[in-house]
């Protein structure tokens, strides 16, 4: 029976064989890699991945799809909302130091998934995700560009990232109304030591009114913390490089 894409799960199923091949080549799965696929759906990526890996762990929220996936002998199906999955615990359960994480992420909750995985980055070897192209543009954006945002800062301090493949709407059924792309995310080997929660709060405050100078937002926030150091607040949030945000949160 044909599975009807469910809007509430943000389902768009990949059907373009050449694009699927391109994504698998970008991931470059090796036999026995401890890989986790988020949202396998109708197994368009799952099948070629498991052929190269031998076995694969998949996280699927849709009960009907999970039932179908369990028929595959080489899949370990985790029927769950990905935001509830403890990836650190999963690595322990699988008895591996690092996981390789891949997926065609539901576009309606892609940012929450990225921030959830950030909490488990210590057990991640790399991540390859298909996302809305404009989200990836924000992830990899440079300072002083319109795409540079809170998402850019919060991911760039911890990952090296690159846009590796463009995916047009007609590659899916049903086609989304946006362009898509695939991003490669590799955790930085020697990340700076920071208080991540404080960084999140600081960056969120800085970008809360991105048209205004930072003295109206971050400046007041720093005053409230009795910050005695020097930081130029006569700039907009998008003009401050990631390294400066990192240095500021370390000085706090």
Could you characterize what this model shows?
The strands form two sheets. The protein has a seven-stranded mixed sheet. The protein has a two-stranded antiparallel ribbon with strand order 1-8. Helix 5 (110-118) links the parallel strand 5 (99-104) and strand 6 (124-132). It has two domains: 7-187, Rossmann fold; 196-251, rRNA adenine dimethylase, C-terminal domain (Helicase, Ruva Protein, domain 3), CATH 1.10.8.100. It starts with 12 loop residues before the first strand and ends with a helix. 33% of the residues lie in helices and 20% in strands. It is α/β, with parallel strands linked by helices and 252 residues long.
Provide the descriptors you would attach to this structure in a database record.
elongated, single chain, 9 strands, 252 residues, Rossmann fold, two-stranded antiparallel ribbon, alpha/beta, Helicase, Ruva Protein, domain 3, seven-stranded mixed sheet
Please identify the top-level CATH class of the largest domain: Alpha Beta
Described by strand count, sense and barrel closure, the largest sheet is: 7 strands, mixed
Order of helices and strands: EHEHEHEHEHEHHEEEHHH
- The percentage of residues in β strands lies in 15-25%
| Share of residues in helices | 25-40%
Give the total of domains.
2
Kindly state the number of beta strands.
Answer: 9
Q: Taking Cα atoms only, what radius of gyration do you get, to the nearest Å?
A: 20 Å
With strands numbered from the N-terminus, the spatial order across the biggest sheet is: 4-3-2-5-6-9-7
Indicate the CATH architecture of the largest domain: 3-Layer(aba) Sandwich
**Whole-Å distance between the termini?**
58 Å
Quote the average pLDDT. Answer: 93
What is the general shape?
elongated
Structural class: alpha/beta
- Multimer state: single chain
CATH topology of the largest domain: the name is Rossmann fold
Low-pLDDT runs of 5+ residues are 1-10
């Amino acid at each position: 029976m044909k599975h009807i894409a469910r809007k509430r799960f943000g389902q768009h199923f990949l059907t373009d064989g050449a694009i699927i091949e391109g994504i698998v080549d970008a991931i470059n799965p090796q036999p026995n890699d401890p890989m986790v696929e988020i949202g396998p759906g109708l197994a368009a990526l799952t099948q070629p991945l498991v052929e190269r890996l031998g076995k694969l762990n998949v996280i699927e929220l849709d009960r009907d799809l999970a039932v179908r996936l369990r028929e595959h002998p080489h899949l370990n199906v985790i029927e769950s909302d990905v935001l509830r999955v403890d990836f650190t615990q999963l690595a322990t359960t699988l008895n591996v130091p690092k996981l390789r994480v891949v997926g065609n992420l539901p576009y309606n909750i892609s940012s929450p998934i990225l921030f959830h995985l950030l909490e488990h980055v210590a057990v991640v070897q790399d991540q390859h995700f298909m996302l809305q192209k404009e989200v990836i543009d924000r992830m990899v954006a440079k300072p002083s560009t319109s795409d540079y945002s809170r998402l850019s800062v919060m991911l760039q301090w911890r990952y090296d990232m690159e846009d590796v493949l463009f995916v047009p709407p007609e590659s899916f059924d049903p086609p989304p109304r946006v362009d898509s792309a695939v991003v490669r995310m590799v955790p930085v080997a020697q990340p700076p030591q920071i208080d991540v929660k404080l960084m999140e709060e600081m960056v969120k405050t800085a970008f809360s009114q991105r048209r205004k100078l930072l003295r109206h937002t971050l400046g007041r926030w720093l005053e409230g913390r009795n910050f005695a150091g020097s930081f130029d607040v006569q700039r907009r949030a998008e003009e401050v490089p990631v390294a400066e945000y990192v240095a500021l949160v370390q000085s706090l």
